Amino acid sequence: DFTFSANRLEEGDYTVQVTDNESGVEVESSVITVTEADEEASFTQSTISEDRGDLAEMTVEIADSDFATITAGAVDGSEGFVANATVEDENDDGEVTVYFNTYELQENVSGDANEAQPFAVDSDSDDSVTDQQVEENTSDLIDAGQYNIEVMAG
Fold first, then answer.
1. pLDDT of residue 89
2. Which of 76, 85, 91, 122 is the most buried (most CB within 10 A)?
């Protein structure tokens, strides 16, 4: 038995050579070409509109990956909150429908920004939210207005 992991190979051409220790017989594989993955993630709609305190539904399209990371709010804190989530396309259909609960951004709902869970998928979905955190939350409902929301593969 032998296990080999090639998680961090640079781009290029590789071969695998195997030697039987007992007989000394060597076998070399065909050339294996490693290239950078073309992972992509995007929202199916360019604008998501919802009343403050409600659930905003968004669909993430994912290509050449099973995971996407969503960031809502401005990382520099200028929008009053920052929330992140990693979602997984477990059924490999290339889409994850995610619900963003703007009510959960309130400090007094969870008592702790680290316990807030504003991102969710349907309970009967094959997909999942694998990780999430609110780095900065609000003292009340978010103000009516426009907010940044971004997604990237991985």
1. 96
2. 85
Strand, helix or coil at 22? Answer: coil
Query: CA–CA separation, 135 vs 114, rounded Å?
Result: 7
47 CB-near residues (< 8 Å, 6+ apart): none
In degrees and rounded to multiples of 5, residue 36 shows phi and psi of -70, 135
For residue 40, what are the β-bridge partners?
A: 63
pLDDT at 25: 94
CA distance 53 to 66: 30
Give the integer Cα–Cα distance in Å for 88 and 96: 7
Widest CA span of the chain, in angstroms?
A: 74
Model confidence, pTM: 0.72
Please, are residues 120 and 99 in contact by the beta-carbon 8 Å criterion?
yes
Instruction: Provide the pLDDT for residue 124.
Output: 94
